[in-house]
Design a protein that fits this description.
- The chain contains 2 helices and 2 strands, in the order ββαα.
- By secondary structure, the protein is mostly helical.
- The chain has a two-stranded antiparallel sheet with strand order 1-2.
Length: 78
Amino acid sequence: MLTTNLSVNPSGNPSANTSFGMPAAFWSQRREASLNWLALGLLLAAWNAVDDSGSPRRRPDSLRAYPHVTVRTMTRIG
């Protein structure tokens, strides 16, 4: 048997204050947290898309044959 946890007010209608047994404050806090994460993601995406330096620094000729180069190697050579 399938049951739901909706609270019912005296008129017989599901209450607008609860959803699936959770108070409205719970859902508003979850919504705010979700919107905060979304805003952070958009901020990081925009920050990543900004081109500060114009053109990226090219890899030195001695390292072009390697598919991956560490920062430590680049600082020793460059």
